[in-house]
Amino acid sequence: MKFSTIRYAMPKVWPLNKLLLVMKLTTLLLIIALAQVSAKGYSQKINLNEKNVPVEKIFQSIEKQTGYVFFYDNNFVKKLMMSVQVKDASIDQILDISFKD
Predict the structure, then answer these.
(1) Residue 69, Cα to own-chain centre: how many angstroms?
(2) Whole-prediction pTM value?
(3) By the 8 A CB rule, do 53 and 82 touch?
(4) Among 49, 52, 76, 80, which is most exposed with the fewest C-beta within 10 angstroms?
């Protein structure tokens, strides 16, 4: 008896109910994973009362209150003096007020 070693390359087809079950489980896992990932933005309110100080000090005050980090040229910000008086303002508002000129 002679056996043929040639096999037809036929893909294994899953039964429809098994395929639907896998799709349902995948969808469920994706929904659970996406529900866990939620980014919330919250507005931090900052209080500053600085008069005629270098911009570097203003940046340091904002960094201390918020945890944000500013990158700047030390030579530039040490020379530039400004006054800022704000209460319960956002970072955007403070930067707009500071650099409006």
Answers:
(1) 14
(2) 0.55
(3) yes
(4) 52
Other Cβ atoms less than 10 A from the Cβ of 98: the count is: 19
Residue 99 is encoded by which pair of tokens?
Answer: 């650099």
Tokens 């400004």 correspond to 82
pLDDT tens digits, the chain, 101 residues: what are they?
666 655 555 556 668 888 889 999 999 999 988 887 765 666 688 999 999 999 889 899 999 998 889 898 888 888 888 889 999 998 888 888 888 86
For 30-69, b/e burial (b = at least 16 CB within 10 A) is eeeeeeeeeeeeeeeebebebeeebbbbbbebbeeeeeee
Provide the 10 A C-beta neighbour count for residue 89.
Answer: 19
CA 74 from chain centre, in angstroms, equals 27
- Distance in angstroms (rounded) separating the CA atoms of residues 24 and 19: 9
Q: Is the separation of the CB atoms in 92 and 49 below 8 Å?
A: no
